[in-house]
Amino acid sequence: MTNNLFVYNTLTRKKERFEPINPPFVGLYACGPTVYGDAHLGHARQAITFDVLYRYLQHLDYRVRYVRNITDVGHLEDDSDDGEDKILKKARLESLEPMEVVQHYMNRYHQNMESLNVLPPSIEPRASGHIIEQQELIMKIMKAGYAYEVNGSVYFDVIAYNNNHPYGQLSGRKIEDLLSNTRTLDGQSEKKNGLDFALWKKAGPSHIMRWPSKWSDGYPGWHLECSAMSTKYLGMQFDIHGGGMDLLFPHHECEIAQNVAGYGQPSVRYWIHNNMITINGQKMGRSLGNFITLDQLFEGNHKILERAYGPMVIRFFILQAHYRSTLDFSNEAMQASEKGLMRLMNSIAKLKSIQPSNSSSIDVDALAKRCQKAMEDDMNTAKLLGHLLSGITQINNLAEGRETISEEGLEKLITLYHSWVFDVLGLELPSASGKANEITGKLIEIILQLRSDAKSSRNFETADRIRNELTNLGITVKDRKDGADWEIN
């Protein structure tokens, strides 16, 4: 299979033509959540980025196995080898079993993803269900001479690895700089140097989540799980791996080192990373008071929010920016996204009422090529949406009789919008609207009929007042000979 899809490979720092290892099969792996808290905007952006990639690869007729893991053990408080496991900390604070915490937040994550119309992955493995695979990988790494055991814990030897393989090439870091910026070990640490990371940690007496091993009763390191699970389900070499840019170092850097050390070769051909979301120009963080969960967005119950925003508005907002660019959240941006989404959906609805002609005055094929080219260029959903929104003018002209389109052309136009908007971008009629949108539309139609009746009775003052009030609400009314069209701006 041939295609013109180019993706930006973080490893090589350039756009490359996507060529899967075993077409038409594609192996796709994305880092999923650590389930110790509610999903937030950052989770939404990563999930939607890889959901669109998953959908688009299927659109190109690839058979995709999409694996997205669940981290339910081993992720320590400061993302290194110190502190407390995040899930254990949450379990202790809430007087729950660790797996109760995992199940609770995993269920909530799935509900959020369903609301955002994120497709479920082909496989969703959990770290705690793959302890044997992780132990086997540790033994391979130790046998290759790139890990050492101290007091029941096993650490990856970064210096030994770097002597034979470059460590830091994914993130563009140099080992010398990393060493100079790493704190000097105080003699209390078991590690040979501060860059070394845990493959296996011996569990302390109070540590609940623990498994037997040849080294100790303990638990795997956070970085190890993705190496073990991705290769188990996608093979020793697979096509795409990615996640948020915050995972690039150290998590994905450590994955590469583990795979090369344990399997003798890199496992991933294309590394893809989405950028971060800021809140009113600031990094999102609990200490700044601007940490917004998806449930808070859906319900509008955060002090930053002027009101609630539906899941499809959030999805549209995220798709309006290229996945590799920083995206700034604000109420103004969300409200603009809401208007853009409604314009798009209203225009798609208008397609049903367009009557075909014997000839066409618009070029549907040209619009189709522009849309295709946008997605081929590293999944540029922002440019794709721009093309789709620009096509609204033509749809309005067709609905008002100022342009013509053949029956074949109309079928192409309907297919084009449905394919890109619903199948690839994953947008749908806003769920907050589901029934509410239907009722709103019918109410507007009733109001417009009252206005029409007022005009027929030559009560132009009332007719103008109705039109002005609708305009103040952001509803544009366009009169026709046999009625009126409307759209929400």
Describe the structure.
The protein is an alpha/beta fold. The chain is built from 16 helices and 15 strands. Helix 4 (131-143) crosses helix 7 and helix 11 (331-350) crosses helix 13. The protein is elongated, with a radius of gyration of 27 Å. The model has no long low-confidence stretch (mean pLDDT 91).
For this entry, give a set of tags.
alpha/beta; Rossmann fold; 3 domains; 4-stranded antiparallel beta sheet; 489 residues; 4-stranded parallel beta sheet; Isoleucyl-tRNA Synthetase, Domain 1
- Provide the low-confidence segments as ranges: none
The average pLDDT is 91
Domain unit count: 3
CA radius of gyration is: 27 Å
Enumerate how many helices there are, as a single number. Answer: 16
Helical content stands at: 40-55%
Estimate the global geometry from the Cα principal axes.
Answer: elongated
CATH topology name of the largest domain = Rossmann fold
Strand content: 5-15%
Major beta sheet, strand line-up: 4-3-9-10
The span between the termini is 42 Å
- Under the CATH scheme, which class of the largest domain? Alpha Beta
| Quaternary | single chain
The biggest beta sheet is recorded as: 4 strands, parallel
Number of strands: 15
The CATH architecture of the largest domain comes to: 3-Layer(aba) Sandwich
CATH evolutionary superfamily of the largest domain: HUPs
In short:
This protein is of the alpha/beta class. The protein contains 16 helices and 15 strands.
